[in-house]
Amino acid sequence: MADRILIKKGLQIPLLGEPDEVFRGRVTSEFVKVCPEDFHGITPKVAVKVNDRVKAGTALFYEKRHPEMLFASPVSGVVTAIERGEKRRILHFTVQADKEIQYEDFGKKDVASLSSDEVKKSILDAGIWFLIKQRPYDLIANPDKAPRDIFVTGFDTAPLAPSYDFILEGQEADLQTGLDALTKLTAGKVYLSISPKTTNKGLRNAKNVIINEFDGPHPAGNVGVQINHLSPVNRGETVWTLNALDVAIIGRLFNKGVVDLTRTVALTGSEVKQTGYYQMLIGTELTPIFKNNVTEGITLRYISGNPLTGTKIDENGVLRAYHSQVTVIPEGKEVLEPLGWASLSPNRYSAGCTYPHLKRNPGKKYRLDARIKGGQRAIIMSNEYDKVFPMDIFPEQLIKAIIAFNIDKMENLGIYEVAPEDFALCEFVDTSKLELQKIVRTGLDMLYKEME
Amino acid sequence: MKALRNYFDKIRPNFEEGGKYHWLHSVYEGFESFLFVPNTTSKSGVHIHDSRDTKRTMSIVVVALMPALLFGMYNVGLQHYMAIGMEVGFWTRFFYGLLAVLPQIVISYVVGLGIEFTVAQMKGEEIAEGFLVTGILIPMILPIDTPLWMVAVATAFAVIFAKEVFGGTGYNIFNVALIARAFLFFSYPSKMSGDKVFVRTGSALGMGHPEMVDGVAKTVDGFSGATPLTQLATTDAPHFASFSFTGVTGQPLSLSDMFWGFIPGSVGEVSTFAILLGAILLISTGVGSWKTMLSVFLGGLFTITLVNLFAVNATMEMPAYYHFLLGGFAFGAVFMATDPVTSARTEKGKWIYGFLIGLIAVTIRIFNPGYPEGMMLAILLMNAFAPLIDFYVIDANVKQRLKRVGNNKRK
Questions:
Q1: Environment class of residue A85 by beta-carbon count within 10 Å: exposed (0-12), middle (13-18) or buried (19+)?
Q2: Which residues in A lie closer than 8 A to residue B55 (C-beta atoms)?
């Protein structure tokens, strides 16, 4: 029986547009784009030239400081463009996909018989090392540094999040292989966190890992919260983090011997007519699933990922590397709302109680748009972040230490334990409308530069 | 509304970079965002935002202050007509009070917002809403007979030296409204205490004209404008039992008079009932911290109980509920101590912070014969110590974290 840990603080934002648990087919597109900006902190060095033929699993680029860290092409075909932006920063690699995908053969491997280094090398060579992230700094894991432990989250509590149970159905074997591979990568433990509602056998009965149940509202599914409750990261330590969906992709590599970056993606959001799940490769253009399936007549915001941490894309955008969710919400820039601060409308959602509360029925869901709904101010209210931040950390004081870039204070207040996503809810509820995730991201980057 | 929106859109270019009114762009933005929810959308970070913002939060506080303000106005009229011995109806009393208080509110807002607008414009920032609350608090905690020029000077002093020099709303160390009051209290003590200032005997904008005798308003026999706390501080009664509070005409004051607020005092502080209404709103909306409010009362209760045990005079014998009903205790606890910027910011810290405010306020009241009221000084003093309290609360968390590193190393 798994230990149950109760998370009391947090917030489940009741949004319209939960995904129906229906599988709606596979989506392909002629062009597949890989955006290096998805992989925060790396300096991409190009490994292919325009017009080169690549297979699924062939490296498109690698990390400058770790040439062994390759980034695989999700699809086979011809590299048609390497588009660059300001300062020659690479925006994306475009691959024109073959009708029939050809895979680079990495050979099926029995994880149990491999050594730690062999497992590591297999994942690096296959170009999917990026699935493993590390704390501190919330970057792609540094392969040279052995992690104290590895943490895997087996559910997602973010608004409109996809169901891992649904996605992992039929992938139980890959999941277990992936977990076995992870146990080889650390001398410490591999922790898998599940929700009390988790039904998937592969998650619930996973072997060789320590299973804990986390019960509570978002961010109970955030790996950062789970680490904080299980075994916090201290100065000088490194842990690696993944989600169970990515573990299954790693498992696929060993079970099938190929890089198959297929994700099952939930199409969600209040502006989607028919929600549901689609299968597609990372980098697939999303136009087909948006076509005739979203509200017309208003400006929309398309998000790869969830509304709290996702990446803003346009309607021709592609599925970004880490996401198993695509969300469409109203942009809201044409909304005219007079005297909003005096509003008594029950349709204005607030986590606090400054808007009419009595009428709100508990099942009511809201259609939130992308407006900030206020001006940026200094931090005024206290105890606002704490209510949605279930970690043994003082979030407001940590944010202030980051703004002041006081390294000692940041360390003392627990900067090594956090990632920007942990502050997403704080950013949502903040009356002062500060860009907290950006502040944390900048802080972590500056600290990384300073320390490494 | 649509027409207004179009008008705003039409005049916008004038206020943008290069426009002829660019120097007023903060003012333009201030009014625009006051009238319409800004429709800027998020560019980075979360894509959705909560509906509450600083405007909403500050509006809630202003609404919470309304019962105390409206009752305070009525009471100003009530005390006035009692003092000059005229029988008038409810509305006459209220309008007299309105006319007496309104100029102070207007002056406080005009001066304070004027400075805020100017500073925001100079810094090129949006106008912060903090002064919406401060501006109404200042007239509410001053005696009704404070001259208007003093209100103006005190507001200007407080906004500039207690807030803007620190960086504006959210950065100040001391409660701005209380600084305004403290400034007057120490600069013009004769206008801020005593038995003349809390009841207006003269007219208010021509209304409620008293009979004049030798250029002084004629008052009823036995008139005294002393607040109950002043009466207590100056009494020579050996025991509280042999002492009684009196109103302006010398009539005895009951506990219910004190609860409803039919007593002389600053505009906002008299009615404990109205303050209670405000407290309910602040707590139910989560804008004010119930922990701070409760702990102020707990701190007061603790100290009074202790003092009662060793009482040697009437002041020391007064039971706790009199302390809570009289003077600015309740008002300070609900509206001043809970100011999130100047209060302790950690939850544990709020308990300590509030408790000490209650403790110090009562101590000043009882043991310092010069100051019949101690709430203002107690809160200002604790404002100064709030960061220290937070430091120790946070330090406990830090120590725990450092200890964890130590433990791991030993393993």
A1: exposed
A2: 340-341, 374
Quote the number of domains for chain A.
3
- Within this chain, do residues A252 and A269 fall inside the same structural domain, yes or no? no
Residues A268 and A308 in one domain: yes
pLDDT digits (tens, 9 = 90+) for A167-221: 999 999 999 999 999 999 999 999 999 999 999 999 999 999 999 999 999 999 9
Q: How far is A9 from chain B (nearest CA, A)?
A: 14
Crossing angle of helices B2-15 and B25-35, in 10° steps, is: 160
Q: Do B37 and A397 touch (CB under 8 A)?
A: no
The whole-angstrom separation of Cα A426 and Cα B283 is 21
Cβ–Cβ of A339/B35 closer than 8 Å? yes
Question: Is residue A136 domain-shared with residue A104, that is, in the same domain?
Answer: yes
pTM of this structure = 0.91
Percent of all residues in chain B with a pLDDT value above 70, rounded to a whole number: 98
Establish if A332 touches chain B: CB-CB under 8 angstroms. yes
Is A365 inside a domain boundary? Answer: no
A234 touching chain B per CB within 8 A: yes
Query: A104-117 pLDDT, tens per residue?
Result: 999 999 999 999 99
Nearest to B401 among A374, A412, A424 (CB): A412
| Domain presence at residue A371 | no
Chain B residue whose CA is closest to A341? B56
A347 inside domain: no
Q: For chain B, which residues make up each domain, given as ranges?
A: 55-204, 288-398
User: Is A308 a residue whose pLDDT tops 80?
Assistant: yes
Residue A378, pLDDT above cutoff 60: yes
For residue A147, tell me if it sits in a domain.
yes
Last residue of a domain, one of A256, A285, A306: A256
Backbone angles phi, psi at A269, to 5 degrees: 115, 155
Where in the sequence is the domain holding A337, given as residue range(s)? 264-342
Task: Name the one residue in this structure whose structure tokens are 């490296």.
Answer: A59
pLDDT classification of B313: cutoffs 50, 70, 90:
confident
Tokens of B353: 């912070």
Beta strand A262-268 pairing with A276-281: antiparallel
Q: What is the pLDDT of residues B99-110, one digit of tens each?
A: 999 999 999 999
Among all residues of chain A, which has the CA nearest to that of B6? A336
Q: B41 and A15: CB-CB below 8 Å?
A: no
Give pLDDT tens digits for B344-361: 999 999 999 999 999 999
> A174 with A290, same domain?
no
The gap from C-alpha B404 to its chain's centroid, in whole angstroms, comes to 44
